Amino acid sequence: MQRLNIFNKAHKALRGLFCTTLIQLQQTDPTRLNELVPCISQIRLLLELLEQHALLEDNHILPLLEPNGASISTFFANQHVQDEILSTNLKCTLNSLEKENTKEEQLHLGQKLMLQFIDFTVFNLDHMNMEEQLINPFLWSAYPDAVLENKITEAIRASPPVHHEIFLDLMIQHQNKSEVQAKPTSDE
Fold first, then answer.
1. pLDDT score recorded for residue 184
2. 152-173 residue pLDDT tens
3. N or C: which end of the chain has fewer CB within 10 A?
């Protein structure tokens, strides 16, 4: 029987946004404001969604691992700290790009942003895979799917609603047809 992947919808939404943002970034000429401004906005949205997602995990998912999974919880909490460092580096480069620069400086910063964003993307894609491969089995051994579904619902209700609509749209957009049409199970 297929168990509930508590990360599936959120991670698919984030992976989809990472991919579209990377494509947008690599097609952006950093010397053209009409291309740069929407790209920077897209990256900032992704950063905000990731921060919100990490907070949700830190406050609602990782505590489910205690006390028997303390080392797993600590590992992923430390990964979230590393993610914050990468995010801060991206934000600094974005801030520099938004200042008045020479064309050469803009090109240099655009290349720097591309490399940082690729590192950030790779880190986060790997992080999400590890969460699904390490945390899910641990949770499955400790909780029935109905309890996990309730925990997800509680976490979403407790999170700030500022990006709920955007995140929901991304979740729907990046699910396969079976997932979109599936009804949640609560009898496991």
1. 55
2. 999 888 887 788 888 788 888 8
3. N
Question: What's the sign of the alpha-carbon dihedral 93, 96, 97, 98?
Answer: positive
1 assigned to some structural domain: no
Q: Which of 104, 97, 124, 107 is nearest to 21 (CA)?
A: 124
The C-alpha atoms of residue 86 and residue 143 are separated, in whole angstroms, by 33
Over range 130-155, report the average pLDDT. 94
Cα-based distances in Å from 87 to 31, 45, 132: 23, 12, 22
Band (180; pLDDT cuts 50, 70, 90) = confident
For residues 79 and 124, the answer to whether their CB atoms sit within 8 Å is: no
Nearest to 159 by CA among 84, 49, 36, 13: 49
Judge whether 56 and 159 are in contact, CB under 8 Å: yes
Q: What DSSP assignment string belongs to 36-84?
A: HHHHHHHHHHHHHHHHHHHHHIIIIIGGGGTTTTHHHHHHHHHHHHHHH
Q: For residue 67, is the peptide bond before it cis, meaning its omega torsion is within 30 degrees of 0?
A: yes
Say how many domains are in the chain.
1
Structure tokens at 56: 């949700």
| pLDDT reported for residue 176 | 83
Task: Choose among 98, 63, 57: nearest CA to 79.
Answer: 57
